[in-house]
Design brief:
It is a single chain. The chain is of the alpha+beta class and about 425 residues long. Helices cover about 50% and strands about 10% of the residues. The strands form 3 sheets. The protein has a 4-stranded antiparallel β-sheet with strand order 5-4-7-6. Helix 2 packs across helix 3, helix 3 packs across helix 6 and helix 11 crosses helix 12. The radius of gyration is 24 Å and the shape is globular.
Length: about 425
Amino acid sequence: MSKFQIVEGVYPIVKNVNVSSAVLAGIVFMALFVSACSDGPGGPPASNEIAARVNGRDIRMEEVEKAMKAQAQGTESSFSQLELASARLSVLQQLIQTEVMFQKAEKEQTVPSDEEVTAEMNNRRTNSGLSREEFEKQMADAGETEDSWRQNVRKELALQKLQDKITGRVEAPSDSEIEAFYTGNREQFKNKRGVELAAIVIDPSDSGPGDPTTNEAEAQLRLKEIAQRLQAGTDFASVAREFSEDLETRARGGDWRYFSEEELRQVFGGQVADIFMKQLKAGDVFPSALPLDGRILVVKMLRRQEQDEDLTLESPSVRPRITELLTNARKNLLWQSYLAMAMNEAKIENNLARKVVDNPNELSGARPAPTATPEGQPDTNANTANANANADAANANANADGAANANSPANTGN
């Protein structure tokens, strides 16, 4: 279960994408670090300095700075010069890729009209759930103006249209390809003994303006209100649509996924699995809230399958799943290849990287001494001490996940 939060930052996040999000991570991004870009690799900012040039079009340091600050939330003081320089290079590389692909979108005539951009901006304002004042404050905090945000939305829509145009050439697999895939992956097409679940999700973490629960106390109050509504006989789906903080399942009235008995034991433990498999009936709500990945779940059992069941090519869901899997794998490969060619053809001057090469000994690896933390307040420096390592791991995993997603079997839950 994944909670999606649309963050309006300096550069776009492509949404409604059919191919792997890991593939798109090389084109559109949210910065993971903050720093002040500089005349030297680790010093104060020079906002008008050219960080890179893509086919004659400049990317300035202020763009890198703004993108990083949008995600920093005041943690930059905990990074060493060496860490800051590494972060800048990573952020700039993504900006370069975005610019390369936007220029491709211009050539392919997939840049949206002013009317399309305006409509999308208005839609996002409405969907944010924020008042006009709150929305404008969030924009100001991110260093955005109406014009800069408009350009970001324009780039995002342009890249989405470009992707749709390029990957739209991929044809559906033939019957023989579908049959060959099924024959070679029979073990992936089983409905194993297990249960199908729905869930109402409460997330105690603070996700920013509009988040109804930002701490454990608020989460417990929300849990109590949910329990009261369910005990009063309110339909589970209705409560999920009103209270769940997971956008994906909330839109489906809480419908989540199918768990095999083995998965139940791995995710929730043996005792919980036994209650689902031996005690509850279809339609029952689990007697207590369940913790999962820092969230709190109210779970309803929709159905239980008592025995393993082999699926055939004639089972309703099998052919569509194989078709989607093979089609998306081809789209992933095509989009990756298109990006690689675009980057190879572009004339790129990375001035920031050149500075690091020219001044390799100016970068200190020592972090600044942590500032005193008031009693009872979270230690921000301590919390961000491993941010670089975590981000590097995340970037590495994104590429690995992209390959895995392209070859993974279809979800056999339903």
